[in-house]
Design goal:
The complex is a heterodimer of chains A (98) and B (132). Chain A is α+β, with helices and mostly antiparallel strands and 98 residues long. Helix content of chain A is 29%, strand content 27%. Chain A has one domain. By secondary structure, chain B is of the alpha+beta class. Chain B is globular. Classes of the chains: A alpha+beta (98), B alpha+beta (132).
Chain lengths: 98, 132
């Protein structure tokens, strides 16, 4: 019974899509609409770039030169505290030899 | 030796030592933890220092430069990026006009975190037993 309930919750979270959090020029905000949980990194990067360039992310001023080429997408599954998928984009942080 | 990094505050104080699993003598891997600490300290952050193998003037790799530019884009301001070798400390900073146009300059003064950064880098190989 509990397993079925958990599966139902997981399916509901999957159907609801993922929230996308963006950080750019010291500003932070979420895309106004959820995205497909299985969207590829390339699809997400294109969506986010377009949204920031056109000023479509609440909390982030439009920046026509926004470029997320060297940013990384972190994907977080739903938790008891945050019952939805979260995707966060942040700058990459490796150093040295690639 | 093993590459090591440290976040530096406005007063020259070490804010966070970066020593993640998977680092090696030539690289430090991507970690969300470093970005979280940068964001946490963004109001008082002066820059970031990391170590390179060997001696002489240390030059940033392409990976270094693209990381510098990405972090500065997310922060919305420029930082000082120090790189140390066994015996030379260099400052790297954006000069422009292109996104990856950074200048490298040797720094004669020795900040207070430099000795500890070199010690944690273990240039002399004294702590090899800890890595096995």
């Amino acid at each position: 019974m509990e397993t079925q309930l958990n599966q139902a919750i997981a399916q509901a979270a999957l159907n609801a899509g993922a929230r996308v959090n963006v950080t750019w020029r010291s500003m932070n905000g979420d895309l106004p609409d959820p995205v497909r949980v299985d969207a590829t990194d390339a699809e997400l990067r294109a969506m986010i770039t377009e949204a920031v360039r056109t000023g479509s992310v609440p909390g982030i001023a439009a920046d026509p030169r926004a470029d997320f080429t060297d940013f990384v997408l972190d994907r977080f599954a739903p938790t008891a505290v945050r019952p939805y998928h979260l995707i966060a984009i942040r700058p990459k942080t490796p150093f040295g030899a690639p | 030796m093993i590459e090591t990094g440290v976040l530096i505050g406005f007063e020259g104080e070490p804010l966070f030592w970066l020593e993640p699993p998977g680092r090696s003598a030539t690289s430090i891997p991507d970690t969300r933890e470093l970005w979280n600490r940068i964001w946490e300290h963004r109001a008082t952050l002066q820059g970031f220092a990391h170590s390179h193998p060997g001696g002489g003037m240390p030059w940033p790799s392409h990976e270094d430069l693209t990381t510098f530019a990405a972090v500065e884009s997310a922060l919305g301001r420029r930082l000082i990026w120090w790189i140390t070798s066994r015996n030379v400390l260099a400052q790297v900073f954006w000069q422009g006009p292109k996104p990856h146009d950074y200048d490298v300059m040797a720094q004669a003064t020795r900040p207070r975190w430099l000795l500890e950064l070199r010690a944690r880098t273990d240039y002399e190989g004294k702590n090899l037993w800890k890595l096995s």
